[in-house]
Write a sequence for this structure.
C-alpha cells in the first residue's frame, strides 16, 4: 500500500498568497472610501437632526438665544468614537439666524467642514476650493 502525500506545495502556497495580496491591494482603498462615505452621511444626518433639535428648542423657548447642542447631538456618529464634531455658531448676517457645522476629527476628509444654516443653505469649507458639483456630491454621499 502506498500513501499519497496530501497537502500544499510551497509553490501553491506562494501563488495563493500572491493572489490574495493583489486582491487586497485593490480592495483596501475601495473599502476605506466606502467607510469615509458612510461617515460623511452620518455627518449630514447629524446636521439635520441638530437643526431639527434647534428649531424645536427655539419654538418651545420662544427666544432667539443660542441653543447649545446637548450630548448626542454634538457628534457623528451619535454613539461611540466621534468622527465629526458638531458645533453651533451664533447669528450672523450670512447665516440668517444660526449655523451648525460638522468638523471632521481627522482632517484628511476631502469634503472638509460641513455647514448648514437656518435658511437651509448647505456648504463645505475645505482646504481646496470645492465647486458646487463637489459640494453636492459630499452631501449626497457620493
Amino acid at each position: 500500500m502506498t500513501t499519497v502525500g496530501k497537502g500544499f506545495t510551497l509553490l501553491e502556497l506562494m501563488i495563493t498568497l500572491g493572489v490574495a495580496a493583489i486582491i487586497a491591494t485593490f480592495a483596501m482603498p475601495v473599502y476605506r472610501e466606502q467607510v469615509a462615505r458612510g461617515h460623511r452621511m452620518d455627518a449630514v444626518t447629524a446636521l439635520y437632526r441638530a437643526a431639527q433639535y434647534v428649531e424645536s428648542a427655539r419654538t418651545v423657548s420662544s427666544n432667539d438665544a443660542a441653543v447649545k447642542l446637548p450630548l448626542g447631538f454634538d457628534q457623528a456618529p451619535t454613539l461611540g468614537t466621534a468622527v465629526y464634531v458638531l458645533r453651533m455658531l451664533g447669528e450672523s448676517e450670512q447665516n440668517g439666524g444660526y449655523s451648525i457645522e460638522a468638523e471632521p476629527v481627522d482632517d484628511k476628509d476631502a469634503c472638509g467642514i460641513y455647514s448648514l444654516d437656518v435658511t437651509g443653505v448647505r456648504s463645505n469649507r475645505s482646504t481646496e476650493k470645492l465647486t458646487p458639483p463637489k459640494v453636492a456630491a459630499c452631501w449626497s454621499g457620493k
The chain has a mean pLDDT of 82. The two ends are 64 Å apart (CA to CA). Residues 65 and 96 are 14 Å apart (CA to CA).
